[in-house]
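USER: Write out one fold?

ASSISTANT:
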Amino acid sequence: MNSNVYINHPLRFACDKFLIRHKPKTQRQWLQELLIMPDVDLEIDSFGTGPALELLESKMAKLLGKPRALFLHKGMIGQLCALKYHADTSGCNTIAIHPQSHIQVDELQAYHELLRLNAHFFGTLNKPFTLGDIHQLPSNLAAVCLELPTRHAGFQLPQWQDLETLNRHSKQNGYALHFDGARLFESAPYWNKSYQAITHLADSVYVSLYKSLGAMAGGIIAGDEHFIESLSPWKSRFGGDVNTVFPYVLSALWGIENYLPHIPDYCLRAKQLSQLLTEVFGQQAVPFEVQTNGFVLQLPIEKFFLDRAVLRYADKHKTWLFDKILDGPKRTSRVEIQVGNALNEWSDQEVVEALHCVISMAGEIKK
């Protein structure tokens, strides 16, 4: 088990109250939910075709303002396919990515190990890209792959004007702009832009189906007709042709109807909660501007002791607070708050009280 990540810890499965993301479902709850879906009686999909799957792809293409959308059971596969397409089309094997981007930090550099693509790092640590970063981009690129927001940089987003400038710069220099929009829906409220206005700036876009949309798994790659058709060989080569994916598809359709409309509310709640946390714990408690439903919280206790306190709190209160704990500066810890429907069971003051309690527990453990 990764020492920073506790999402599969046995104590988590014994909890009945959760602070972050959507409240997790049991296998029985998933099955019960799928059984009442209006699309459950549609013909089952097989190896990439079927009415429910086509309905999902059609809905996502319309939401994202692109001619076509393609479902993949694993977003990583879709993004590798997209980057391979842009590399082959351009004749260049270099992509520009943020040094803290998901495909750099979490995928073991699959873009290089599997596709032999090289990375030009675009932007600096713990910051979104700037106009200066754009002007330092090399002219010979296959694509800029931009994560919106950059989770490991504190869920930060670039300014809208900078995004428009990057779009113009990519066109002028003949490289593609790909949005790793795993949390694209959660980014739109910050800019006060429609999903279509955002994705219009990109040649291709990825969105996750299992984050704020709450599907079992899966993602969508969207773009023009030729782009989507060209992904088919690499989808097969990366193992993307699955016998049937109907549980993923039905749960994604449920999420579009039931979670997507509430994402602006989750973003607003994150902003409000973060403001209270800075009042209680000081400005240093929220080190980055809150721009989406996710933000970084810095707590005044070392990771070693907070680790143990969070597990002790879960055991005592049957309440799960954090899935990941990282070292912060000067004997602090950093955790992620990602607002989903789980927070509906909490008042903001109850969150503060839980944090005070776990910090106190950590202090006792430290003694």
The two ends are 27 Å apart (CA to CA). Residues 27-258 form a domain with the Aspartate Aminotransferase; domain 2 fold (CATH 3.40.640.10). The CA atoms of residues 44 and 319 lie 38 Å apart.
